[in-house]
Amino acid sequence: MKKEPMLSVEEALDKMLKAVAPMIRTEKVMTLQALDRVLADDVLSFITVPSFDNSAMDGYAVRLADFTGDMPQRLPVSQRIAAGRPGEPLQAGTAARIFTGAPIPAGADAVVMQEDCSAEGDAVLVNKMPKAGSHIRRAGEDMRAGEVVLTAGTRLTPAHMGVAAAGGQAKIVVRPRLRVAVFYTGDEIVMPGESLKPGQIYNSNRFSLTGLLQRYGVELVDYGIVPDKLETTRAVLERAADSADLVITSGGVSVGEEDHVRAAVESLGQLDLWRIAMKPGKPLAFGRVGQTPFVGLPGNPVSTYVTFLLFVLPLLRKLQGETAKAQIAYPVAAGFDWPVAGKRREYLRARLEVSTSGELTAVIFPNQGSGVLTSAAWAEGLIDIPVDQTIKAGDKVSFMPFSGMHP
Ligand code: AMP
Ligand code: MG
Questions:
Q1: Of the chain's two ends, which shows fewer C-beta atoms within 10 Å, N or C?
Q2: Is 189 in the pocket of ligand 1 (CB under 6 A)?
């Protein structure tokens, strides 16, 4: 059998992303419940933020014109303004006791922090000459009324939720959660809690994939373990595609006699089986079951994990209408040698350390086998080793933090 040339990671990802369109459904949710959701519309601020000049400090609001230049300057305290209460215009020759967040009284042009003052009965001694505008937060320095403060396609972080709320938005329009159907192929796979017969292994992929998908805020439709039989695989696939926006499977996508995912998908839709020039994770299947996009991940636990991060996450992002962003990767020093150049791009499970000379350095897990899931648990990210490249300790390598891949 003539083998197709291997695809690069970029080529495969590009083909996958081109084949799917973002969902168009929307729903309105409470801003308070919108963490990790993707905005369907731009969010405007209803108001100017701050909506009034206010004090950044506990202290005294003053008029610079009242300062003679001789310090300390004594000023009678004519009013007290706490947050949430507007004060009176500031009388000439006096100071207003003021607290953080309280409106600046008309006429005041600086706040002196209380650490630079001494209270003296009904007056205050200002020990330090204030500067114009000091410790005043200006109206509108954060947002303007009507301004777009968050753009459609943003996946909401805690700070985004706060920004929407500061602008007065109690509810926002987001994309619905993506429904993702998953199942796990393999006659050898059983759930932890059951006893293992000879030759059986536990379904670890169900746990790592569930965790990854939960982090991503999807609605999971889990069909569990499916035996290596064409008819069963086909039947479950059909149900999965009917119930979801995306179907993901684990295992069964090689071209062995026990790998039925390919034939099952082909009979219900269309499939590309790719050999990707990467390690771990060479075989990857992508296609459609009916109209539902389908991804068949390799069964080896590390391959499943890594191909999910590199291919499924960008796919989920696009399906949910999230604005595309480049994979986060930054240069660090290699704390290891990689003496043999490979024909496939390698994604090594790695951690960062600060070397004795203060340099950010990547160290790798000693066993990089694609079945060794402890390597992924130990790691904080992946080192991306290009094809045909050897690495000597101290060389710059590219580190992709797991934290930059999850939301
Ligand atoms: P496959 O892709 O089905 O050829 O599987 C490749 C390897 O991954 C085999 O050693 C399988 O036993 C293992 N494997 C497949 N599915 C799982 C799973 N759900 N959990 C853990 N290991 C798996
Ligand atoms: Mg299998």
A1: N
A2: yes
